[in-house]
């Protein structure tokens, strides 16, 4: 299989964390390993199917490692690999920016929704 080539680093990074859920899963794992149910509760709004799919993709990309304890009842934990930890560190400034501007972003989004509602009415 031919290796994918990228034109810039951002393109490569987005290929790994693209989609709605991967960044949120990555961030949920940035400070501790978690069990599946804990991840599902932490990543608000994600379905079980989407969490499973995204975790498998992240595991295939070398971002997440799955540890199966082979116990009854089943116990599985997910954690970031060293590759995933380096990606999480890169996302930290983006998280800080979001925290700093959260109120402004929320207000802008609310205004957009109100404007759309007036146009549709």
TrEMBL record:
The keyword DNA-binding applies. Residues 8-106 form the HTH hxlR-type domain. Keywords: DNA-binding, Transcription, Transcription regulation. Transmembrane segments: none annotated. GO terms for molecular function: DNA binding. PROSITE patterns: HTH_HXLR. Signal peptide: none annotated. Gene3D superfamilies: Winged helix-like DNA-binding domain superfamily/Winged helix DNA-binding domain (1.10.10.10). This is Transcriptional regulator. It comes from Telmatospirillum siberiense.
